[in-house]
Design goal:
Elements lengths: L2 H4 L3 H7 L13 H5 L3 H25 L7 E5 L5 H9 L4 E6 L4 H10 L6 E5 L11 E7 L7 H14 E11 L10 H14 L7 H11 L3 E6 L5 E6 L1
Parallel strand pairs: 1-2, 1-4, 2-3, 4-5
Antiparallel strand pairs: 5-7, 6-7
Helix pairs in contact: 4-5, 7-9
Protein backbone atom coordinates (compact mmCIF):
# COMPACT_ATOMS: atom_id res chain seq x y z
CA UNK A 1 0.00 0.00 0.00
CA UNK A 2 2.88 2.38 0.70
CA UNK A 3 5.60 1.49 -1.72
CA UNK A 4 3.90 0.64 -4.98
CA UNK A 5 3.36 4.22 -6.15
CA UNK A 6 6.84 5.31 -5.02
CA UNK A 7 8.42 2.75 -7.34
CA UNK A 8 6.78 4.67 -10.19
CA UNK A 9 9.45 7.31 -9.57
CA UNK A 10 12.39 4.89 -9.68
CA UNK A 11 13.87 6.63 -12.72
CA UNK A 12 13.95 9.95 -10.90
CA UNK A 13 15.56 8.24 -7.91
CA UNK A 14 18.27 6.72 -10.09
CA UNK A 15 18.97 10.05 -11.79
CA UNK A 16 19.01 12.17 -8.63
CA UNK A 17 20.02 9.76 -5.85
CA UNK A 18 17.19 11.15 -3.73
CA UNK A 19 14.46 9.24 -1.88
CA UNK A 20 11.07 8.98 -3.59
CA UNK A 21 8.80 8.21 -0.60
CA UNK A 22 6.78 10.51 1.69
CA UNK A 23 9.87 12.66 2.28
CA UNK A 24 10.17 13.54 -1.41
CA UNK A 25 8.76 17.04 -0.89
CA UNK A 26 10.45 17.70 2.45
CA UNK A 27 13.05 16.36 4.87
CA UNK A 28 10.72 14.25 6.99
CA UNK A 29 12.05 10.90 8.19
CA UNK A 30 9.48 8.51 6.77
CA UNK A 31 9.11 6.51 9.99
CA UNK A 32 7.90 9.61 11.82
CA UNK A 33 4.99 10.08 9.42
CA UNK A 34 4.24 6.38 9.21
CA UNK A 35 4.07 5.97 12.98
CA UNK A 36 1.52 8.74 13.43
CA UNK A 37 -1.20 6.41 12.15
CA UNK A 38 -1.65 3.29 14.34
CA UNK A 39 -3.29 1.34 11.52
CA UNK A 40 -0.43 2.01 9.09
CA UNK A 41 2.09 1.33 11.85
CA UNK A 42 0.61 -2.11 12.50
CA UNK A 43 0.44 -2.84 8.77
CA UNK A 44 4.11 -1.94 8.31
CA UNK A 45 5.28 -3.94 11.34
CA UNK A 46 3.18 -6.95 10.35
CA UNK A 47 4.72 -6.79 6.88
CA UNK A 48 8.24 -6.69 8.33
CA UNK A 49 7.49 -9.59 10.68
CA UNK A 50 6.01 -11.61 7.83
CA UNK A 51 9.02 -10.88 5.65
CA UNK A 52 11.45 -11.97 8.37
CA UNK A 53 9.56 -14.90 9.97
CA UNK A 54 11.33 -17.62 7.98
CA UNK A 55 14.70 -15.94 8.45
CA UNK A 56 14.28 -15.64 12.21
CA UNK A 57 13.19 -19.26 12.43
CA UNK A 58 16.22 -20.39 10.41
CA UNK A 59 18.56 -18.28 12.56
CA UNK A 60 17.19 -19.61 15.85
CA UNK A 61 17.56 -23.17 14.59
CA UNK A 62 21.03 -22.75 13.08
CA UNK A 63 22.87 -20.47 15.53
CA UNK A 64 23.75 -21.58 19.06
CA UNK A 65 22.45 -18.82 21.33
CA UNK A 66 23.04 -20.89 24.48
CA UNK A 67 26.49 -19.33 24.98
CA UNK A 68 24.96 -15.90 25.61
CA UNK A 69 22.96 -14.54 28.55
CA UNK A 70 21.76 -11.16 27.26
CA UNK A 71 20.57 -10.12 23.80
CA UNK A 72 19.65 -6.68 22.48
CA UNK A 73 17.71 -6.51 19.22
CA UNK A 74 18.12 -2.96 17.89
CA UNK A 75 15.28 -1.91 15.62
CA UNK A 76 13.41 -5.00 16.81
CA UNK A 77 9.93 -3.80 15.80
CA UNK A 78 7.35 -5.98 17.58
CA UNK A 79 9.94 -8.13 19.35
CA UNK A 80 9.36 -11.15 17.12
CA UNK A 81 13.01 -12.25 17.07
CA UNK A 82 13.47 -11.81 20.81
CA UNK A 83 10.37 -13.90 21.48
CA UNK A 84 11.56 -16.67 19.17
CA UNK A 85 15.00 -16.79 20.81
CA UNK A 86 13.61 -16.70 24.36
CA UNK A 87 11.10 -19.44 23.56
CA UNK A 88 13.86 -21.84 22.54
CA UNK A 89 16.53 -20.75 25.04
CA UNK A 90 15.12 -20.43 28.58
CA UNK A 91 18.41 -19.12 30.00
CA UNK A 92 18.44 -15.97 27.87
CA UNK A 93 16.98 -12.55 28.58
CA UNK A 94 16.24 -10.32 25.57
CA UNK A 95 15.38 -6.67 25.09
CA UNK A 96 13.84 -5.41 21.87
CA UNK A 97 14.53 -1.75 21.10
CA UNK A 98 12.71 0.55 18.69
CA UNK A 99 11.16 4.01 18.46
CA UNK A 100 8.63 4.96 21.20
CA UNK A 101 5.44 4.40 19.14
CA UNK A 102 6.48 0.78 18.56
CA UNK A 103 6.92 -0.14 22.22
CA UNK A 104 3.21 -0.95 22.90
CA UNK A 105 3.15 -3.21 19.82
CA UNK A 106 6.15 -5.14 21.12
CA UNK A 107 4.71 -5.35 24.62
CA UNK A 108 1.53 -6.83 23.17
CA UNK A 109 3.43 -9.59 21.34
CA UNK A 110 5.57 -10.31 24.41
CA UNK A 111 2.45 -10.63 26.56
CA UNK A 112 0.76 -12.92 24.01
CA UNK A 113 3.90 -15.06 24.01
CA UNK A 114 3.87 -15.14 27.86
CA UNK A 115 7.53 -14.12 27.96
CA UNK A 116 7.31 -10.96 30.11
CA UNK A 117 9.77 -12.44 32.61
CA UNK A 118 12.61 -12.68 30.05
CA UNK A 119 11.72 -10.37 27.15
CA UNK A 120 11.40 -6.61 27.60
CA UNK A 121 10.58 -3.76 25.23
CA UNK A 122 12.54 -0.51 25.39
CA UNK A 123 13.00 2.56 23.22
CA UNK A 124 15.93 3.76 21.17
CA UNK A 125 16.54 6.09 18.25
CA UNK A 126 19.46 4.39 16.53
CA UNK A 127 20.20 7.55 14.54
CA UNK A 128 20.51 9.75 17.64
CA UNK A 129 21.83 7.39 20.33
CA UNK A 130 25.40 8.25 21.30
CA UNK A 131 25.89 4.72 22.61
CA UNK A 132 23.99 1.44 22.29
CA UNK A 133 22.83 -0.72 25.21
CA UNK A 134 25.37 -3.31 26.31
CA UNK A 135 24.73 -7.02 25.76
CA UNK A 136 26.47 -10.31 25.06
CA UNK A 137 24.91 -10.39 21.60
CA UNK A 138 23.37 -7.62 19.47
CA UNK A 139 21.08 -8.30 16.53
CA UNK A 140 19.71 -6.05 13.78
CA UNK A 141 17.20 -7.21 11.20
CA UNK A 142 17.01 -5.14 8.01
CA UNK A 143 18.45 -2.07 9.72
CA UNK A 144 21.95 -1.51 8.31
CA UNK A 145 20.77 -1.41 4.70
CA UNK A 146 18.85 1.81 5.37
CA UNK A 147 22.06 3.80 5.91
CA UNK A 148 24.76 5.24 3.69
CA UNK A 149 28.25 3.78 4.00
CA UNK A 150 29.54 6.26 6.57
CA UNK A 151 26.51 5.73 8.79
CA UNK A 152 26.76 1.94 8.41
CA UNK A 153 30.33 2.15 9.69
CA UNK A 154 29.29 4.38 12.61
CA UNK A 155 26.52 1.97 13.62
CA UNK A 156 28.88 -1.03 13.49
CA UNK A 157 31.46 0.83 15.60
CA UNK A 158 28.82 1.63 18.24
CA UNK A 159 27.74 -2.02 18.25
CA UNK A 160 31.37 -3.08 18.79
CA UNK A 161 31.74 -0.68 21.71
CA UNK A 162 28.48 -1.84 23.31
CA UNK A 163 29.23 -5.56 23.15
CA UNK A 164 30.79 -7.47 26.00
CA UNK A 165 34.38 -8.72 25.62
CA UNK A 166 33.41 -11.86 23.70
CA UNK A 167 30.27 -10.41 22.18
CA UNK A 168 28.72 -11.09 18.80
CA UNK A 169 26.91 -8.92 16.27
CA UNK A 170 24.37 -10.49 13.89
CA UNK A 171 22.96 -8.50 10.95
CA UNK A 172 20.04 -10.24 9.23
CA UNK A 173 19.74 -8.88 5.70
CA UNK A 174 19.45 -9.78 2.02
CA UNK A 175 23.22 -9.87 1.78
CA UNK A 176 24.24 -9.65 -1.88
CA UNK A 177 26.70 -12.19 -3.28
CA UNK A 178 30.16 -10.69 -3.74
CA UNK A 179 29.94 -10.97 -7.55
CA UNK A 180 26.53 -9.21 -7.46
CA UNK A 181 25.06 -11.73 -9.92
CA UNK A 182 22.81 -14.11 -7.96
CA UNK A 183 20.83 -12.40 -5.21
CA UNK A 184 18.13 -10.64 -7.24
CA UNK A 185 16.04 -9.88 -4.15
CA UNK A 186 19.03 -8.28 -2.44
CA UNK A 187 19.66 -6.09 -5.48
CA UNK A 188 15.97 -5.14 -5.66
CA UNK A 189 15.97 -4.37 -1.94
CA UNK A 190 18.93 -2.09 -2.52
CA UNK A 191 16.84 -0.16 -5.06
CA UNK A 192 14.07 -0.06 -2.48
CA UNK A 193 16.48 1.59 -0.03
CA UNK A 194 17.21 4.20 -2.69
CA UNK A 195 13.49 4.93 -2.85
CA UNK A 196 13.12 4.96 0.93
CA UNK A 197 16.32 6.69 2.05
CA UNK A 198 18.12 8.00 -1.01
CA UNK A 199 21.62 6.92 0.01
CA UNK A 200 20.73 3.64 1.73
CA UNK A 201 21.80 0.41 0.02
CA UNK A 202 22.11 -3.34 0.53
CA UNK A 203 25.62 -4.77 0.60
CA UNK A 204 27.79 -7.80 -0.01
CA UNK A 205 29.37 -10.06 2.59
CA UNK A 206 32.75 -8.61 1.59
CA UNK A 207 31.43 -5.12 2.32
CA UNK A 208 30.23 -6.19 5.77
CA UNK A 209 33.52 -7.93 6.54
CA UNK A 210 35.48 -4.80 5.67
CA UNK A 211 33.36 -2.55 7.88
CA UNK A 212 33.30 -5.03 10.77
CA UNK A 213 37.06 -5.59 10.76
CA UNK A 214 37.65 -1.84 10.60
CA UNK A 215 35.50 -1.51 13.73
CA UNK A 216 37.65 -4.09 15.54
CA UNK A 217 35.80 -7.37 15.07
CA UNK A 218 38.18 -10.31 14.74
CA UNK A 219 36.19 -12.98 12.91
CA UNK A 220 33.38 -12.71 10.35
CA UNK A 221 31.01 -15.42 9.14
CA UNK A 222 28.05 -15.74 6.80
CA UNK A 223 25.11 -17.95 7.72
CA UNK A 224 22.52 -18.59 4.97
CA UNK A 225 18.95 -18.31 6.22
CA UNK A 226 15.65 -18.56 4.33
CA UNK A 227 15.60 -17.77 0.62
CA UNK A 228 17.97 -14.95 -0.29
CA UNK A 229 18.60 -13.75 3.27
CA UNK A 230 21.73 -14.36 5.31
CA UNK A 231 23.05 -13.55 8.75
CA UNK A 232 26.29 -11.59 8.60
CA UNK A 233 27.99 -12.46 11.90
CA UNK A 234 30.89 -10.57 13.51
CA UNK A 235 32.71 -11.91 16.60
CA UNK A 236 34.46 -9.48 18.93
Amino acid sequence: NRLYRFWGDLEEGLLTGRSQNESKHGNMHFFEELYKNPERLHEFIDAMSGFQAGNFMALVNAFDFSKYKTIADLGGADGFLCCMIASKYPGITCTTYDLPPVKPVAEDRIARSKLQDRVKAATIDIDKAATFPSADLITMGNILHGYNEESKQQVIRKVFEALDERGVFIAIENVIDNERRKNALGLMMSLNMLIENGDGFDYTQADFEGWAKAAGFRRIEALPLAGSTSAAIAYK
